[in-house]
Amino acid sequence: MSRPLRVLAALSGGVDSSVAAALLLDAGHDVVGVTMKLWGGAQDSGCCSVGDVEDARRVAQQLGIDHHVFNFTDDFAVRVVTPYVDDHAAGRTPNPCIECNRHLKFDRLLARAGQLGFDTLATGHHARVVTDPDGRRRLLRGVDRAKDQSYVVHMLGQGPLSRVLLPVGELTKAEVRHRASALGLRTARKPESQDTCFITAEGGREAFLGGRIALRPGRVLDRSGATVGSVPAVELVTVGQRRGLAGGGGARRYAVAVDVGAGTVTVGNRDDLCCEGVAVRDPGWVSGRAPSRGAPVLVQCSAHGRAVPARWEGDGVSFVRPERRPAPGQAVVVYDSDTGEEVLGGGTAA
Amino acid sequence: MAVYLDHAATTPVRPEAFEAMRPWLTSAFGNPSGGHRMARAARRAVDEARDDVAVALGCEPGEVVFTGGGTEADNLAVAGVVAGARSAGRPWGAVCSAIEHHAVLRAVEAVDGRLVGVDADGVLDLGALASGIGPATGLVSVMLANNEVGTIQDLGAVAEVIAARAPAAVLHTDAVQAAPWLDVATLARPARLMSVAAHKFGGPQGVGALVVRSGVRLEPVLRGGGQERERRSGTHNVAGIVGMAAALRAAVADRDTSAARVVALRDRLVHAVRDGLDGVEQTAAGAPRLPNIAHLCLEGIESESLLMLLDSAGICAAAGSSCASGALERSHVLAAMGLSRQQAQSAVRLSLGPTTTVSDVDTAAAALVAAVRRLRSRAPARG
Description:
The complex is a heterodimer of chains A (350) and B (383). Chain A has 350 residues and is of the alpha/beta class. In chain A, 24% of the residues lie in helices and 28% in strands. In chain A, the strands form 3 sheets. In chain A, strands 12-15-14-13-16-17 form a 6-stranded antiparallel β-barrel. A 5-stranded parallel beta sheet of chain A has the order 3-2-1-4-7, with helices on both faces. In chain A, helix 1 (15-26) packs parallel to helix 2 and helix 3 (73-89) packs antiparallel against helix 4. Chain A is globular. Mean pLDDT of chain A is 92; it is low at 42-47. Chain B has 383 residues and is of the alpha/beta class. In chain B, helix 1 packs antiparallel against helix 8 (238-253). The longest helix of chain B is centred in the C-terminal third of the chain and has 22 residues, at 255-276. Chain B starts with a strand and ends in a 6-residue tail after the last helix. The mean pLDDT of chain B is 96. Chain A binds chain B through residues 35, 37, 41-42, 48, 50, 53-54, 57, 66, 68-71, 73-74, 107-108, 111-112, 114-117, and chain B through 302, 304-305, 308-309, 311-312, 323-330, 341, 374-375, 378-383.
């Protein structure tokens, strides 16, 4: 190893970030732990509950490193929760984890790490950063394909990547847990967080949104425009959704369009859900440069979705074969076409 | 070696308190509620401690209720007076200042109480108090000195407003921060109830007292064996109570010299910081304040970053209060004083104590100046 780095390790209270900090400590770096307080009070479940902060603190104690808590609730409300609510109100699919990474972890926290004199910020994401001989950074999928989180960190450009370490991206989840057990970390067997951290298990999405926006019943239309059913809240329907939209005939029906203004959900069969391509808003690129127009790429439209062959068209992607339509608002992440390992960049489905 | 400037959070146990406690944690371990010789010895220790505490706080021994700390004393005062008034069919509405410690604030909220605002220096708005209370008010709680900014309230003036507007109301004061530094026996005389916490004046953590003047009707919060004249059940924390009394005696004995020494150190600290930095605002500068608290707002600074740098430089300081997760909370005190969110988030509280030295404040001032300069020179680049 070259000189030891001063590392600020973001500890979420989960096993991955615990092991990330442990690995860096092991490698001889000077590590300080930090947990972001993002939301809510003592009862809240999710990634920033008091229980998780406690787990993070206990892990730091076990590792023998200092631990601090930063209160970023103000930014989280503005940058993550408000857009989440607004997206639902407009019939778009929100990406709270991506927005949190974009604005909180890899912006506000990273900036503060720099201000405090840390060389780098470490997180527990399953993705890899590699440095080319010319110093350019590339962002790769995590070694454990099933746990790969490159999708949710696709917004990282050269600036942030030069100041970020993702050590568990080199490990499988089983190795992470093994490592945590070997160190006796209390998070070793902790189940993974699944849901949106600010939505409680009891109330769910409906209760959360219901307290913030008017949820209005909507009509379900078929492709010809005929009313074939109803939904209790049009704001809660996502393009591609099947649940709650079943017809009488037994055929599977999918939401193919949501119009919150008109209060309608258009349904169709699986073919109706397919499209030739999708326009991408606000694309950003890891290298700083977009692929050339017409370049073959692989495209992934959900965190654990399949990457499908496509071409980059300058303002969107065209699929090689018709693919299931990404819901407006979903992140469209572009990978290299050779191996599909490298994140090129991404944006938001229009 | 750390420089400890967080005495308002807690302060080291005085040697005389520690020595006084020792027997009650070792050979003399009786439960004062029992009937045998070991119990009697413990009972006597608690009774003598009660006498000492009563003298220091300016009340009768029978008016002292030992509790498990300041928060419990505050909760007992608010919930106990409100419940007592309700059960007697008397007015029970609760009112407190907007800058109370959470122990009072949350207790008052729990009985649907109301808040009264303060001015820019944290001084209670007596006009707002007058219009905020009335015949339905049963309890008014106003802290003698604030834990964040140190502002001292004139309880005599508060009591006059209460007498004129809400004759049924009793006045409670949280004197937790005042007790180490002020003559609370005199200054809190207008109040019918007063809370103190041992660990702020050199006693151990986890013990406190509520003074309840005779004639105040108080329902217990903790029910059980009927200790403390049915006002607070639970086995006495004998060592803690003895330690509190010893600490309080010592604190009262050297209060005036200690306060004079500490105020000089505090001013030396503030001057050094102001000499080294622009954009330093001393909070509550226009009000009478505790001698040991320097509360500063530092333009362009985020407290969390500053405290972390100070910590790594070995300086223990604070800023407002923390929530359950350990994150800094937005200060309700500074918000009530009308500070902007940005100002409030730039605050640091350095609180001195009897053990603070000239070298401590000089080291802290230099570290603070260096940390603020560093943070200002590296304003976070975002995006």
